[in-house]
Every structure is written in structure tokens, then in C-alpha cells.
Amino acid sequence: MDTPNLLCSFFFFFSLFLGHQQHVVGGSSVFLSGFGPKMMFVFGDSYADTGNNKKTLASSWKIPYGITFPGKPAGRFSDGRVLTDYVAGYLRVKTPIPYRWRKQLAGRVKYGMNFAYGGTGVFDTLVPEPNMSTQIDFLQQLLNDSVYSKRSLKTSVALVSLAGNDYSNYLATNGSAAGFPAFIGSVVNQLKVNLKRIHDSGVRKIAVSALQPLGCLPRSTALFAFEQCNGTENMLVELHNQLLVQAVNDLDKQTNSSSFFVLDIYNAFWDVFNQKQARQVSPTFENPFEPCCAGVSAAFSCGSVDENGVKKYTVCWNPKLRFFWDTVHPTQEGWRAVYSTPVLQNNLKQIW
Question: Coiled-coil intervals in this record (predicted)?
């Protein structure tokens, strides 16, 4: 399927649903004073995964991933740190270990656990890894096995990432234009169910990421010589984010709490793209829509090699000067810039 052409044909249809709202409203009221999170639990996809994917399946375990940190591939979809690492640093807790390494690193389970798997969504995708519902099942099993207690979870924070794999899967499986708004609604509704399950497990602060501007990912901007975003895709993102804010507000009312809040990744990305506060939060990125690591042709991707082991990708000379690492994921410096934006710093204040 020619995804960009399909999305362009959606433009007029979705404009009926969206209008031109640019901002996502971030979450609910602040934490009670004196709250000190002791653990962090992570659910979602490659924007949060720190090593759960199988080495035989994921590019995140291939060179040159991890060249900035820790110096070799370690399962992160970046040259270094990802969103999880920065949020953990804000909480002053250690980055939680990946679920698949829980037995080898049993001494670190006290800091929480990362259940996120790259390529997954709230529903099953083309990646044979556990979706978000199954990830929450893993937490429930650990509670049943007394690895954690429901009481201990009351001093924990959950980070939930949904970066768009459900939508990529929808397009890849020939989803119709007319059905897209309803599908977006079903994704957010399932995400709402998942957030409630995490809350019911005992976690009292749950941060869920807004959807980033998908039309600005290099896989989309490549069609425009990395000079502009696909506005149609970003209009779909706005619908998702509007529904997400409504879902979070509904959950706070339903639980009579201020447990849920949105990390406004959407506008944080835009702040970096627009170089707002650039001198404070980031260097001047070279073209922010062009990736550092990319395949030498459309048939290859970052980390790919041919049958003789010859590299079929190129890497920029300095990842610190690029916002995107590959065609989907930010560099470590990109994530640092996003984390440092005023909009995300204000969101994170709700943790305390």
C-alpha cells in the first residue's frame, strides 16, 4: 500500500473532524505534597523500551544502535537513552530493568520494571511481541507472585507510551479511510481501559504520552526531501490527542482522583522543531527531519547488512546534531531536548 498517497486522500475527510487546533492540553492536577515515587513501571512501545525485544527480531540490538550510550547495542531504539531514562532521572530512581531480564537482574526489581516492547500497540500488530494488555498481565502476575505488593505500588509511577504502531498496522492491513476516525476512537478507548487497569493494580500516578507528530517522522518527511511534515498525518494525530485528553479527564472523574496526566510529547516535539528555547534545551539541530542513521536505499534500514555482512546504511558524523536517529526514533540528544522543553517539564511537575 502507498501509505502517503492514501493519507493524502484522507485530508478533506478528516478536516471535517478536526479543524486546526494545535495544542494538546496536558493532564490533571498536581501530586499531593510529600509524595515521593520509589518505583517506576513502563508500558508501551519502542519510545519507552529499554531492551525487551528479542535480539533476533529487533534492530535495536544491532550496530550502530547504542553507539552513544552505553557504547554498544542494548535494546534501545536510539543511539543512546530514550524517554524512559529521562523520566526515571526526573523521578530520581534508576531506570527500571526490562521485564525479560528480571531474573538476571533480580536485585534491581525494587526500582520497578519496564514492560514495553518495540513495535507493539494496544492491539496486536505485525510484531510478534506482547501488546499493552499482555504487558499489564505481566505486572499482575508479578503481584500474584508477591514480587510486588499492591501497597508498594502506591508509591510508584507508571509511564505509558503509545507511539502509533496501531495506526501503522491499520494502514498495512488495508484499513479504509472511512473507518479511520472510528479506529482512532477504538485505540483510545482500549488505552483508557489499560490505564484504568494499571490504576486498579495499585499505581497512583500514571503518565501517558500524547501521540507525537507522526507526519514529521523522517519516514514521512523523506517524501518532501526532509523539508516539511505531512500535515494530513498530523491532523489524525490531533484527533487522537483530543480524545486522549478527554479519556484522561474521564478517568480522573471516574476514580475521583488526580492520578492520570498526559505528557504532551506532541507540542514538545514542535517546540524543538521550531527551535523555541533552543539555546536552553538543545543545540541547533541540523535539519530536524533528517535522520542520522538510514538505509542506503528504501529497501534497507538503519543497522541492516547484506548476506555478506556489508553495511547497507550510513551514519551521520555526529548524532548530537540530529534530532532523529532513524526514520522513526529520536536520538539521545533529541530525547534530551524534548524532555527539557518547558511543556514537558511542566507536565512532569504533576508527579510531585
Answer: none
| CATH code, 192 | 3.40.50
**46 belongs to the catalytic site:** yes
Active site residue 79: no
Q: Which domain holds residue 165?
A: 3-282+336-351
The answer to whether 329 is a known catalytic residue is yes
Pick the catalytic residue from 45, 264, 271, 326: 326
Residue 266 is assigned to a structural domain of this protein: yes
Q: How far apart are CA 343 and CA 217, in angstroms?
A: 20
The partner residues of 263 in beta bridges, in order of sequence, read: 209
| Residue 283 C-alpha from the chain's centroid | 22
Q: For the segment 61-88, what is each residue's pLDDT rounded down to a tens digit?
A: 999 999 999 999 999 999 999 999 999 9
Number of domain units in the chain? 1
- Inside any domain, residue 30: yes
Question: Mean pLDDT over all residues of the chain?
Answer: 88
- Rounded to whole angstroms, how far apart are CA atoms 16 and 11? 9
